[in-house]
Amino acid sequence: MNAVDIEALSVNYGAKHAVQGLDLRVRPGTTCVLLGPNGAGKTTTLSVLLGLRPADSGRVSVLGRDPRDPALRHLIGVVLQDGGLPMAAKPVAIVHHFARLYSNPLPLPELMEKLGLEHLDRPYRRLSGGEQQRVKLAVAMIGRPQLLVLDEPTTGMDPAARRVFWTLIDELRQQGVTTLMTTHQPDEAGTRADQIAVIHHGQVIADDAPDRLIEASPVWFTCARHLDLSTLRQVLGDEYDVAEVEPGRYRVRGDVDVPQMSAIEAWVAGHGDGRQAVTMVRSLEEAYLEMTGGSAW
Ligand code: ATP
Fold this sequence. Notes:
binds adenosine-5'-triphosphate; 10 helices; globular; six-stranded mixed β-sheet; Rossmann fold; alpha/beta; 2 domains; 25% strand
């Protein structure tokens, strides 16, 4: 049984087709990241999973149950973009309050320490964006959920806090917890997730392990002096698109596997100015931008 099983989901807001025939499966004990431009339909999809919005059509199952099944409440930990936490309460009081709702909550001092909350002695509304996210995360994790559904949980977090976040997610994964989350940080997701689903215009347009998606990324390299690309085009063949996109910044599009990567590296080494190290880059961010057309919306 999949932890999350979505088949042909469609959701409309009046005339707006926010989600249009979306399919997604997340295996138990894995971490799946949804990537997609603003307005792609990620939050809407999570809302349906959480039983907060009805589907207009399609089939959705969460931990083998209908999303509106009240039994899911104790099995899912949630971070939403909009608050939902008492603004005037301090983090310790908030986390204590939620801990009381569960029969076997996580040990509070340990969780508070891990998330750096123990010394935050201010009302929630006076916390910074990243601090508020850490409180939300503590609330999501406190009840030992089987599934975490997190909408942009790392927004506002500094790099150290993001690292702690991913360490926690890894620890939970080792205990069999499934995480489904959104982020606008492709490369962070690329190093940590088991599965990346790219959502664009309400559909999943790519769904695979990060490494496999990165293989679809264009290869970029830079060289301080202008390069005549005609011989590189000959080396690679017609099915590759080789271009100088900006002065000194070059891109190779196409199915670049290990031998082609070596061929490009050898060519660049032989044609560069020999003094500067040439950096070859391919990344999940580039793959993502390529798939979504690089448009911001
Ligand atoms: P972001 O990355 O910006 O959070 P998203 O991928 O989560 O975006 P959604 O919030 O799911 O996108 O929105 C999908 C589309 O539905 C957008 O075009 C949005 O404007 C629209 N939409 C969302 N909520 C509503 C609503 N309550 N009424 C009308 N349209 C809405």
